[in-house]
Amino acid sequence: MKRLQIIDSTTISLFSNLIFKGVGRHPKIGKKKGGIKVHTVIHANEGIPSDIKFTSAATNDSFMLRPGRLSKGDIVAMDRAYINYEKFEELTQRGVIYVTKMKKSLRYEVLEDVMYQTPEGYMEVRIQYVEFTKLLKDGQSITHKARLITYADVQKRRIITLLTNDMEFDPTEIIAIYRQRWEIELLFKQLKQNFPLKYFYGESANAIKIQIWVTLIANLLLMVMKSGLTRSWSFSGLATMVRIALMYYVNFYSLFNSPEKDWEMVWKSVAESPPDPSLFD
After folding, report:
1. Which residues span the domain enclosing 212?
2. Judgement on whether residues 254 and 147 belong to the same structural domain of the protein
3. Which residues 6+ apart lie within 8 Å of 35 measured at CB?
4. Assigned domain for 86 exists
5. Which of 127-131, 134-138, 191-195 ranks highest by mean pLDDT?
6. Considering the entire predicted model, what is its pTM?
7. What's 167's DSSP letter?
8. Reduced to 3 states, what is the DSSP secondary structure of residue 107?
9. Do 179 and 264 share a structural domain?
């Protein structure tokens, strides 16, 4: 988990295509809407961003895959948007393992093909050793050897093929590494559900970036504070309660570890105090 890094991006829709170039067209009016893409890298054992870049939504994701920043023994999990033969070969030369999802349109030569079956005769896993060849602009070519691991995802009811440059790991370990990529999807979901990223207070590129940075800082602070609580809180519940108590001078940990304590003291004092005189006594 300490060696595993996860790379992905999420797109935030904007009101204008003049600030950040968007992708696609509006289904009703046919005009493009702007979009800013948040490229993120997280370590699997931390669950919080360690590297973030902002670009327009039209920017290809593969630029975020930078082999020079990775060391021997690191593992990178990513989506198929990051497939780049040159960078994959550089990762292999540096001793970095990558795991990604295979694109159907890729062409390759199969060097070895092995299929393992269950006792009932169904495919359990298929392992293919393949070789990719790509011609560069200067006329030279790049050859990259990799391994394809195909398995049946029972929950999603479909066949999934993974691409990796590792030739030694057990297929179940490669599958487990790719499934860990879901951690970054949960982070994006957490950000979009608990913070106001649908409305922006400024219309300039700098104002939009500042609001996203503030959101990321607030998310990080809540994650750190949540880890120090003894009482179990969901992130959405904690974010809602912090939003309510934000302008009050209260001790965060005493309040959120035992929020009913002060109410019990008030109720106890009311119960022990003599009843107020009534007009009808």
Report:
1. 202-272
2. no
3. 11, 12, 13, 14, 20, 21, 22, 23, 56, 57, 58
4. yes
5. 127-131
6. 0.79
7. S
8. coil
9. no
